[in-house]
Structure formats: C-alpha cells, structure tokens
Amino acid sequence: MTKWDGHTHSQFCQHGSGEPTSEMVERAIELGFKKYSITEHAPLPKGIIDDPVLAADFTLLPDQLEDYFAHIKELKHRYVDKIKVCVGLEVDYIASHRTYFNEFVEACSKHLDDLIVSVHMIQGKNGIAPIDFSPESFESELLNCYDSIENVHWAYWSDVEKMVLDRPEVDITARIGHLGLINKYIKQYPVSYNKDRYEPFFDGLFSMIKQKGWDLDFNVAGLKKELCHDMYISDWMLELCGKYGINLIYGSDAHDVASVGQFYDRYQRLIGEDKDE
Ligand SMILES: [Zn+2]
Ligand SMILES: [Zn+2]
Q1: Ligand nearest to the CA of 12
Q2: Strand 84-92 versus strand 114-118 pairing type
Q3: Which of 7, 76, 251, 254 is the one with CA 20 to 30 A from 177?
Q4: What is the pTM of this model?
C-alpha cells in the first residue's frame, strides 16, 4: 500500500500556520510518504458567511481558485520525482445548497486528482452554522436551536446521509472527510445515542457509503483536540467500515508542517499493518 497523506491544507489557508506548502510537502517526503493530497477548503456558496474577513478565514475565496490550482500544480511538477502530489479540494456539503455543491464540483473536476467532501456546517439558530468553530458557537447556534445534544447530532447525521446519497459523478477518488467531526467537543457536550434509533440508521448509512463508492478519511486530527481526544473516525465507525468493506485513507488534516503525517502509526496499526511498503 502506498504511504499516502490524503488530507492536508496549504499556505492559502488563513486558519492554518501560513507556512509554505512546499515545506509541508518536503516534510512528507522526509517521512517517507509517496503520495500527498493537498485538499484546501473550497469556497462556500454566497451568503453563508457575510463577514468578508471571516469568510476568507474559513475557505478559499472564489477569485483565489485559479492561483491555488496553479500553485499545487507547480508543486506537483516540482516534486514529481520524489512524491506524487495530488491536486485536491475539501468541499463543504451544505444540505440546503446541494445545487451549488454539484455545480462547483463539476466545474472544478478537470483540475482535480482527489476530492474530499465534508459536512462542517448545518442549519443553526441564525442560519447555517459551523459544528466545529468553537464550543461557544456550538452551544449558542446549535444546542439552542435543537434543544438537546442528541438532536444536534441527529441533524448532523441526517445531512451526512444526504451527502452520501449525493455523491458527485466525477471520475476521481472521492471520500468523506472526518465523518466523526460532530464529536469535536464531545467531552464538553457528551451524548449517548438512542440505540433503537441509531443502530439501523448507521447500518443503512454505511451500507450506502459503500454502495455509492465513497472512501472514508481516516482523520486523526481530533486526537489533538482537547475536547475530543479521539480520531474523527471512532471505533464503532471502523467496525462498520469493516463490515461493509469501506476503504479508509489516512488523513493528517495538517494545517502546519509539524502535523504532516501525524499519528500515521495508528493507521498502520489499525488498517495498513502489513500492507505498507
Ligand atoms: Zn481547516
Ligand atoms: Zn475539514
């Protein structure tokens, strides 16, 4: 199995470290990775974030896309003898904006080698709200809107289900980003799922993930988040991946040089054990 970091960000990311993308690629080479996907946050639909400063902090802006693709393609060319750099994006799936999503992916697909699709935002109290911005906004925008933590989770999972069904028909690898992101603040907002409701739901969801041809992001970033301390792919999710034969691709979700390749040993241990190199 090729040693691959399938989820990383770039110097374009304003909530990242701002370190040169080339240094991140060089770190990956140093760690022995042979494949490296750069999956910057894709522009959101108009009107999701009104404040222009905040919007630029969240994702690329539409007028940056061309420069972004040129930048990643240059790196791909520059390091071609050492590592396979994949031109990617991490695109938000916002259930109420599925037309934008489908049109955007189709319009960009000619530039892309690799695609991650993630739910970071769901309907909140005052419009579309991030699930992972801060515990305070989780509480004010989501908990206050849905009345219970379980209901917030349920709203998230029902958008995830829509995303699973809406897999874009593009001829590139597509995977779902950090499926367990809703657990980012789980230590502050603990939840226990109603089994009768969730067990059949998740069984159906994972079966559909497989049927639709999605891979999943084996996203380790949550291990460093103090209110999570888990991967964004929990043990029970891994079990369902095993049951349905769903492919898991390691993703550091690095936003800085030091995080490239982080916790890769977990992936090796759980998934890649004797398949690596
Ligand atoms: Zn990010
Ligand atoms: Zn993400």
Answers
A1: 1
A2: parallel
A3: 76
A4: 0.96
How many C-beta atoms lie closer than 10 Å to residue 106's C-beta? Answer: 12
pLDDT (tens digit per residue) in 43-99: 999 999 999 999 999 999 999 999 999 999 999 999 999 999 999 999 999 999 999
Residue 245's φ and ψ, nearest 5 degrees, are 70, 40
Residue 212's CATH number:
3.20.20.140
Instruction: Please name the amino acid found at residue 93.
Output: Y
Q: How far apart are CA 212 and CA 161, in angstroms?
A: 11
Task: Tell me how far the alpha carbon of residue 90 lies from the centroid of ligand 2, in angstroms.
Answer: 7
Instruction: Point out the ligand nearest to the CA of residue 132.
Output: 2
What is the domain count for the chain? 1
**Residue 167 has what pLDDT?**
95
CA–chain centroid gap for 75, Å, is: 22
> Sorting pLDDT into bands at 50, 70 and 90, what band is 188?
very high
Beta bridge partners of 250: 218
- Tell me the average pLDDT across 215-240: 96
Say how many Å lie between the CA of residue 25 and the centre of ligand 2.
19
For residue 127, how far is its CA from the centre of ligand 2 (angstroms)? 20
What does each C-alpha distance from 223 to 50, 184, 218 come to in angstroms? 31, 10, 12
The answer as to whether 277 is a domain residue is no
Structure tokens of 45? 């639909």
Does the structure show a pLDDT above 80 at 272? no
What is the domain range of residue 259? 4-272
